[in-house]
Amino acid sequence: ILDPGETANLLIACSNSGHSQIGNVLSSLAISGGSSPYLTLNSTSFSIGVLAAGASGTATFNVTADAATPLGTPVDLLFEVTGGAASQYSVQQTKQVIIGLIPEFNMTNGTVTACTGLFYDSGGASAAYQSSENITETFYPAAAGSMVRMTFNSFSTESGYDYLRIYNGTSTSAPLIGTYNGSTSPGTVTAYNASGALTFNFTSDGSVTADGWEAAISCYNAATPPVAQFTASNTSPAVNSIVTFTDQSENIPTSWVWSFSPNNISYVNGTNANSQNPQVLFSNLGTYTVSLTVTNAFGNDTEIKTNYITVTTCTYCTTSYSNTADDHISNVQLNTINNPSGSTTYSNFTSISTTLVPGQTYTASVSVTVNGSWVQHCFIWIDFNNNCSFTDAGEVFDLGQTPGTAGTHILSGTITVPAGALIGTTRMRVSERYSTDPGPCDVSTYGEAEDYTIIVEGLTKTLNLTVLLEGLYDGNGTMRKAQGETGDQYPGNTADQITVELHNTTFYGLVEYYDQFVNLSTSGLATLSIPIDFNGSYYLTVRHRNSIATTSKQPVSFAA
Asked: What is the DSSP string of 35-51?
């Protein structure tokens, strides 16, 4: 934020997210549209020089705000960085400078025209909203041809009773984007309609209020090509591990194309090379370069991360106990594992597996048979981060000890799967040891150890749909591709896009979940990921981008 009449240095951070050093890094700054009566750029270029892999630098530009600038005036800037001997690498981003105070808008009946500011519930920044509210407010973009975008920084309403509904248009008759309550934040919501407007309706019941919300207002120029960006859940996975790639591209891409070099990978869990967030199985050792190309109606962009993934060999430590006469593990139970066993030094039961879900808690029970009046200690380890180590936080579970009498004793404990557990196959080790706590890599005399396989399931389930759009259907089981002014509106085999909604079976107007911009192939196939905790039944609505919709006659069960 600049004050009117102020001259200051504008600092913009830049980072090298690649895996090799880049030189000749130059940056430039320009005012969108060429000039502004409110801001003067006293310098427009800055040399950053050399950026090592993973390093950051700062570009500095001197600017002056006009003394007569109205408070809260935004000025859009275009920032560009190039690098390499021939400036063969480049990236552009839009930035915004606010001159004066940032305006604040509390929820009230009416309309607002703005491209900057903060949007609050009726209680504003420091107070809660009121009971028995029913308020509707519409936000229009201050810049012609732009779309309003709201980024929610915080969100809290009375769960199940106080609802914020967001509509893609100028009134509550526009298509419903979503309904939010409790701590389920809308995240970032962008208008996608001719007016560029978003309409908000908030209702609260007669008692219990909460803090409400804060959302940052901005405007998005719909005629802007996307900027490709992505991350991976693990850049050094063990062989046979699954890595989730997350699209973080800007400017609302509508299609995605992923590629890997070498290409000896497999897409899993219903994803493919055109998925927004694919899950990839690496079955071979080596180093992989990953590329993502994103496209919308106004252009495309590619991000290439060279040698981004390195697949490594994973070897677990060995463990064993030499005495097989005095004590042993006689049964292990966890979820679907229920495995009785006899006395031995070590047992490899990795052919036996069970599936666990991140965030869920399970009961584990181990039966320890003792042939005398001494104490045996029992532990379980699960390598949730798949790094071949059993000693990381959240991977060690103490089941306690036997009472010091002969017989078979059942020791139990709870296992909570970390929310960040890596998806895929990993190892569980169970050990019991005389008189002291066992370690996962112990080689000793009195005790026993067993290994099992754990499959960590993803946080989403895959919904596969077949949808044929009447206007594009050619009568033989396939569809034509939607056309724009310059030809095919979508690349590849994408015919068009749809919105998929899950509606509450008691109150159809309550949208429990939705996914916009779902690619629909020319053969009518659409695939999307649903959070795994959606286990009930829902009316399934498929909505075309012109808001024509069809809904399932009966609720659809998502229990599988």
From this structure: -BTTEEES--EEEEEEE
Chain centre distance of CA 16: 22
Q: Which two tokens stand for residue 468?
A: 């044929």
Q: Which two tokens stand for residue 553?
A: 């006659």
| Cβ-based neighbour number of residue 226 at 10 Å | 22
User: In Å, what is the CA distance from 204 to each residue of 152, 172, 507?
Assistant: 19, 17, 16
Determine if the pTM surpasses 0.70: no
Residues 6+ positions from 200 with CB-CB distance below 8 Å: 107, 136, 137, 138, 139, 164, 165, 166, 167
- Distance, in Å, from the CA atom of 148 to the CA atom of 194, rounded to the nearest integer, reads 11
**Rg (the chain; Cα; Å):** 29
Phi, psi of 277 (to 5 degrees): -130, 80
User: Is residue 362 a contact partner of residue 325, using CB atoms and an 8 Å limit?
Assistant: no
Share of the chain above pLDDT 70, in %: 99
3-state secondary structure 157-214: CCCCCCEEEEECCCCCCCCEEEEECCCCCCCEEECCCCCCCEEEEEECCCCCCCCEEE
Amino acid 24 reads: N
**Strand 376-382 to strand 396-401: parallel, antiparallel, or no bridges (unpaired)?**
antiparallel
**β-bridge pairing 198-203 and 134-140:** antiparallel
Higher pLDDT, 491 or 179: 179
| pLDDT over 80 (residue 101) | no
CB contact at 8 A, 122 and 107: yes
Tell me the two tokens of residue 543: 């909505």
Query: Band of the pLDDT at 221, cuts 50, 70, 90?
Result: confident
The domains found in the chain, sorted by start residue, are 7-99 (2.60.40.10), 104-221 (2.60.120.290), 230-311 (2.60.40.10), 320-456 (2.60.40.10), 460-557 (2.60.40)
DSSP state of 358: T
Classify residue 117 as exposed, middle or buried by CB count within 10 Å of its CB (0-12, 13-18, 19+): buried
Q: What is the pLDDT of residue 219?
A: 87
